[in-house]
User: Fold these one by one.
Assistant:
Number 1:
Amino acid sequence: MGKKYKLVAIAVLVFSILSGCSIVGPPKNKEPLTIKVITAYKNEFSRFEEILKKEFPHISYEVIGIIEQVNKEASPTANYTERITELLQQEQADIYFNFNPDFYWKDIQLVDMNTLIQKNEVHLNDIQSQMIPSNRPAYYISPTFDREVLFINQNLLQDHNILFNDSQITWDQVREISQQIKRADSTVMGYEIQGTTSWNNLLTEIAQYNGLNRRSDGGRLVWNLELKAIAENMLNDEASSILRKVEENSGPRNWNNLVFYIGNASTMYSLLANPETSFGWQAASIPQSPNGALYNPYIKTVNIAISDASEQEEQAWELVEYLLSEKSVPDLANIGSTMSFYWQEFVGFPTYLDDLELGTFSLDALKPDSSIPAPALSPSARIVEVLDPELAYNVSQEIDRQFNRVRNKQVTFEQAWEEISILIEGINANSENFLVL
């Protein structure tokens, strides 16, 4: 060996010794450590624990299901919220999984993970960038998401020779197609909106698809002629069995006789699991308003937070960073035989979709649409007014009560609308009914 190469070899050896590295054999195993995790129910974390143990075998987890624990020990006279706060302060977790501790413990300090993203130069894909805006703190991060989509029964449309561009469907088209098929087949239901068991919630959703916000910029309740027309159409659709409104005594949904279903995209997992619905359904973007496409935000399905007081912040962040990486996709995407579609409906989808295949479903409706940007967020805090929660509940109850009276033919729609109008006008007129945030 020449003198030059001897010097290089010696230099490498010295550097290795000084840096604590071995030049022979694999690196030493990492020291075992335990991460304390607080979640609402222990089984919610169990799947993620399995995923993380494969990548980080040296880490074990002490998992506390805090709601579970309080439910077991609470007496009828116990202060539920105070006990949860007490346990949070007592346990001092490293990670909070799908549980928001600041709801109970107001002074808790959580890590702004945007600072860690920038510090470690973590690349975020397009979906992650929308879920984790860079211009505000990120105290909660979800490695998975869901999104509202329009499910379309292609079999029914083909049976009735109906063709349309599902990428640009409007709410008026949803109603018109539903009515058209209903006239041809009285057994068919036109549309259903997931999770809208109350008239008030239904009205809010349908107003959105018509480009109408039920709150003004000043936080006041909107109750105008445009909303009146939407509400009357909604009640007429339900009376004609075009709108399927879910009630406590509603029977099971007949997917084969439903034209449209608006709900979380994760519903496709259960559709695929059922042989009767595994073919013939397609997912599209939510209906456009008359003013064009609507911004359709990503729904965080699994919120993860790191305690600012944790002595293992670096290791905790390493876990979160891994779950955000493309490497975790096979497990998060249910590629394997150990996870059920029930679990997938809970977590939704990984933020990398390129290699994800779900039967005949197109995933285009889940991808970011650059033509529909997220609403601009001011870096500075905005002062907003919101209706007192108790009054908001009272309004919701009154809308439900009055619209049920219309359905039961106890009052006319005009009478019900007038009664609700009087209530809302009185609330809007009193500034003390609104909280400044």
Number 2:
Amino acid sequence: MWDVSLLWRKGRLYKRSTGIKPRLVIITQFINKEAREVAAKHGVEVYTRVLKA
């Protein structure tokens, strides 16, 4: 869960520094329910499925 919050804080800092809102994305094999809720709250996209080539 703290990874999501850390990414969101970095995105907020980037926006303050550049004036550009970044697209925040986490790609992971597993994310627990609490972390997914935090991601949704902060607008962080979460991808958990891997596409095979």
